[in-house]
Amino acid sequence: MKGKKIIVGVTGGIAAYKSAELVRLLVKEGANTFVAMTRNAARFVTPLTFETLSNNRVIRHMFDNTTAPLDHITWAQEADLVIISPATANFIGKIANGIADDFLSTLVIASTAKILVCPSMNSQMFANAAVQVNLKRIAERGYVIMDPAEGELACHTEGKGRLPDPQEIMEKVRFLISGQDLKGLRILVTAGPTVEPLDPVRFISNRSTGRMGYAVAKAAGRRGATVTLVSGPTALTAPRGMMIYRVQTALEMKRAVLDCSAEADVIIKAAAVSDYRPRERADQKIKKGAETMTIDLEKNPDILAELGRTKRSNKPLLVGFAAETEDLLINAKEKLQAKDIDMIVANDVSREDAGFASETNIVKILYRDGTQEDLPLMKKDEVADHLLDKIKDLIGEKE
Ligand code: CTP
């Protein structure tokens, strides 16, 4: 988001306090963030809060001493994105009808930037026919509307009308300001562990959390790719806007991947597939008995290697991950060749700042032609974007 100018328009609803967190997140990601508030918004949160978080002056009134005569035009036209969060029923009504009676509504009319509207209000107000007609009207004019979330509302009722979580709004913002450079590309991503049951209460699995795969899927979706995510069990929130297949075992993952592979230009296998499964699955809970116990395991199919055996002319671009605790490069290179894939992302999962449960990762990318790239310690989101840049280059070379 570095170098982007984003305006957050705060209108007078109780969810205005959540926009403080939104502004904090925007600034954290490097966006030059400006806040314009309506008169009523300033009853809920003080401008000083936004001024401090954004490091920029906050505008409330058209005719304040601190507002320059052309601020509404310059702010509007230099912006890459205007976010109205929260957007009240009144404000939605104003912009749907071309009313410009304060700084923020005038700025919206003057803007040529994308406008993201995040309605937040009581569920009956949201369902009201006039509000719905107004939302439809602004959507037809190209405004992007973020559907409110359901849940407990400030008026002590339950329903649809909550401002989405600031993190969720951020995901939409990333999508809107990205160049959509992967539009037209169909990407299949696998993520998470597989779980191989022993009996109804026990299983064999691994420590994968799915974070790296989910980061790749989200980044690809945000950049305009059509994404299919095949996910083992994880505690992560399902990303919006993509087809998700939930699987448990390696055999289920194989079926889902092979079913979707013909439709994919790129397959990224970030999942940590269990190499073995118990030969037998007991119908009832296994009871304790002797001092030692042996579990008979049989090998799971290697999904990536199977994809690698596809005839090269029909083959999607194949990307593997190599999770290693020793001899990182030797092992990763061997996997790249043995599975006949295009690139492999090698990471040392024994490090604290990399691997399974970590927010960050430090990886080396190995290519078919023998070249290698060592990336510094990065957030998993950044690794994901870097990886997608490389995939885009390789696809470009293939064509
Ligand atoms: N993989 C797969 N099917 C399997 C095992 C692994 O598709 N049955 C894929 C993983 O998704 C990953 C790559 O192969 O992209 C490497 O996985 P990894 O677990 O590092 O290696 P393995 O091939 O399983 O070898 P080993 O466990 O001996 O290191």
Protein model, in words:
- With 399 residues, the protein is α/β, with parallel strands linked by helices.
- The protein has two domains: 5-177, Flavin prenyltransferase-like (Rossmann fold, 3-Layer(aba) Sandwich), CATH 3.40.50; 186-398, CoaB-like (Rossmann fold, 3-Layer(aba) Sandwich), CATH 3.40.50.10300.
- Helices cover 35% and strands 24% of the residues.
- It has 14 helices and 21 strands.
- It has helices at residues 16-28, 41-44, 47-54, 71-78, 89-96, 103-110, 123-127, 129-140, 166-177, 211-222, 250-261, 303-308, 328-338, 380-398, and strands at residues 5-10, 32-37, 81-87, 114-119, 144-145, 149-152, 158-162, 186-191, 196-199, 202-204, 226-231, 243-246, 266-269, 276-278, 297-299, 317-324, 343-348, 360-361, 363-367, 372-374, 378-379.
- The protein has an eight-stranded mixed beta sheet, sandwiched between helices. A five-stranded parallel beta sheet has the order 2-1-3-4-5, with helices on both faces.
- Helix 13 (328-338) links the parallel strand 16 (317-324) and strand 17.
- Helix 9 (166-177) packs across helix 10.
- The radius of gyration is 25 Å and the shape is elongated.
- The two termini are 30 Å apart.
- The relative contact order is 0.09.
Quick tags:
Rossmann fold, 2 domains, eight-stranded mixed sheet, 14 helices, elongated
Question: Can you tell me the CATH superfamily of the largest domain?
Answer: CoaB-like
Assigned CATH architecture of the largest domain: 3-Layer(aba) Sandwich
Q: How would the global form be characterised?
A: elongated
The biggest sheet amounts to: 8 strands, mixed
CATH fold-level assignment of the largest domain: Rossmann fold
